[in-house]
Amino acid sequence: MTTARIKELVELTLAKVEILKLKADDYTWNCHIDAATKVQLLSALDEIDILLAQLRILG
Question: What average pLDDT does the segment 24-42 reach?
């Protein structure tokens, strides 16, 4: 695995963690994030999962 690929893997993982932390904060998620943003964040989470899987396969 190249350094660039490792860096991308780490950055995607950090982005995923940030979205999951935001989602885990029920008050913020339910009171301060509008529905459209929730959809975008969940979509981004799905895309991140796909990209992470592809990076792991390519190794």
Answer: 96
